[in-house]
Predict the structure of tRNA pseudouridine synthase C.
Amino acid sequence: MTNPLTLLYRDEHLLVVHKPAGLLVHRSPIDRHETEFALQYARALNGGEHVYPVHRLDRPTSGVLVFARDSDTARRLGLAMMAGSVRKTYLAMVRGWPPSRGEIDYPLREEPEDRRLKGLEQPVREAITRYRTLATTEIPVAIEKYPSSRYAVVALYPETGRKHQLRRHMKHIHHPIIGDANHGRGRHNRYFAERFGQGRLMLAATAIAFDHPVSGESVVVQAKPEASFMEVLSIFPGFALPGQAG
């Protein structure tokens, strides 16, 4: 069986990989029928030894994913994430043209994994995302009421880690991410699914930076989005991937 993960970084304590879109990180009550997970493939990259997921990526999101090779490292890095000292960068394609840069400070209600809890009121948590617009384009296709349609590539820098935060925040400012079935615009999603033969979520985790939980040294891991993502970005003439620092 081919391992779908790409190894990006490994040392005595950490394993960092690129996860393709469509792969769950670990078992979920929402997808009980699934049998393949990033966790098991990361274990294979670790010589069959147990690994500890430090954070998560939604199933349709591709990109950089960190595992710890021991429980103490997982605990330390988890605390660093809770303290906001781990810096993440995402790349997204959105509908419309957002401002050149901005900050979305919009609290989000928690979304429980267990569907049995969805009828219960959940707490609202602080949620902050910074963004920067990297490229814009306008295509001569009437998808809604206008004769042409506008899109942008944005870099997203979450300062908190709420469930579906980036997708919900971009919807909140009326620039939903292309391919987002739950928070996006169906007409635009269908157009790109038909044009490129695949309806992926246009959201990729492209970089993570943190102080090593054991050595204290700065660690920066970057990953170019996978081919299916870059193919859709071909609608942006001359677009080149930027540096990843937020």
Remarks:
- The mean pLDDT is 92.
